[in-house]
Design goal:
binds iron/sulfur cluster; catalytic activity; 243 residues; IucA/IucC-like_C; Ferric iron reductase protein FhuF; two-stranded antiparallel sheet; globular; Fe_iron_reduct; single chain
C-alpha cells in the first residue's frame, strides 16, 4: 500500500513522498514508544539541537521540541493524508507500532511501519487495522505524539496541535480533491465546515482565519531558536506576521 501512496503524492509534495516506509529502517531507528524514556528522548533532542545550533536545556528546550515536532509532522502528513484523500484508506500508523528514523542532522526524517501492515494485507488482526479517516490518525497517532512532546518538556498541548494543524492543512490544500467522503472528513477534522466526530478536537481548533489565509492560534516558539525563521503569515501575533 505504501508504494501505492507514494505514486499518488503530488509533485509539490515530492520532498515528503518517502516520509513513511515499511520495514525496520536503519540501525538508529527507534520505536516511537521508546521516546517516552526521558534518556532516549533527551538523546534524540540533543542530536537535533546540535544540528540546529541550540541547547536542549531550559527555556529553549520547549522551542526545540516544538521545532523538532514540525519536522516529525512534515514527514507524517504527506503520506498519511495522501492515503486518506487519494485512496480513501488510512496508513497503519498506530503510535505503538511505528518507529522513527532520523537524518544525518538529527531531524525526524521517516516513520517506519511493520511491513505486514504496510502492505495493507487482509491477515491483519483487529488490533492492527487502522481506525478510519483523519479522526483515526488523531486518536491512534497524533494524540500520543502530542502527549509525548508535552510530557518531555512541559509544552502546552495546543502548541503541538497547532503544528500538526498547520502542516495537515497545507498538505490537504496541495492534495485538493480526491475521495469525496475522505475529503469531507479531513476538512471537518481540520475545523472547516462539515462537522464530524473529531470536529471538536484540539486539531480542529488550532487555526483561525487570517487576512492571508489561516493562521495559528498559539505561538509555536520556533523563532526563539538561533537562525530559525519566523512563521510569517501563520503567526498569531500581528507584529510578527508582517512580510
Ligand atoms: S513567528 Fe509568531 S508564531 Fe512563530 S514563533 Fe514567532 S511569535 Fe511564535
Amino acid at each position: 500500500m505504501i508504494e501505492e501512496v507514494s505514486a499518488r503524492v503530488p509533485e509539490s509534495l515530492a520532498a515528503y513522498r518517502g516520509g513513511v516506509a515499511a520495514g525496520p529502517g536503519g540501525p538508529d531507528a527507534r520505536p516511537l514508544a521508546s521516546l517516552r524514556d526521558p534518556a532516549v528522548f533527551d538523546a534524540t533532542l540533543a542530536a537535533f539541537g546540535a544540528g540546529v545550533g541550540a541547547s536542549s536545556a531550559g527555556l529553549e528546550r520547549r522551542a526545540l521540541v516544538s521545532y523538532w515536532s514540525q519536522f516529525y509532522l512534515a514527514a507524517l502528513a504527506t503520506p498519511a493524508l495522501t492515503a486518506l484523500v487519494r485512496l480513501g484508506r488510512p496508513l497503519p500508523l498506530a503510535f505503538e507500532r511505528t518507529s522513527l528514523e532520523l537524518d544525518a542532522a538529527g531531524r525526524p526524517a521517516r516513520l517506519l511501519v511493520d511491513p505486514a501492515t504496510g502492505r495493507g494485507g487482509s491477515c491483519l488482526g483487529a488490533a492492527q487495522v487502522p481506525q478510519p479517516g483523519l479522526a483515526g490518525l488523531v486518536e491512534d497517532h497524533l494524540r500520543p505524539f502530542v502527549e509525548l512532546c508535552c510530557a518531555q518538556c512541559g509544552l502546552a498541548p495546543r502548541v503541538i496541535w497547532g503544528n500538526a494543524a498547520v502542516i495537515l492543512d497545507y498538505v490537504a490544500g496541495e492534495l485538493g480533491a480526491g475521495d469525496a467522503p475522505a475529503c469531507a472528513e479531513v476538512a471537518a477534522c481540520l475545523g472547516r465546515p462539515g462537522g464530524c466526530a473529531c470536529a471538536r478536537t484540539p486539531l480542529a481548533q488550532a487555526l483561525c482565519a487570517g487576512a492571508a489565509g489561516c493562521r495559528r492560534r498559539t505561538c509555536c516558539l520556533r523563532s526563539r531558536l538561533p537562525g530559525v525563521p519566523s512563521c510569517g503569515a501563520l503567526c498569531p501575533l500581528e507584529r510578527c506576521a508582517e512580510p
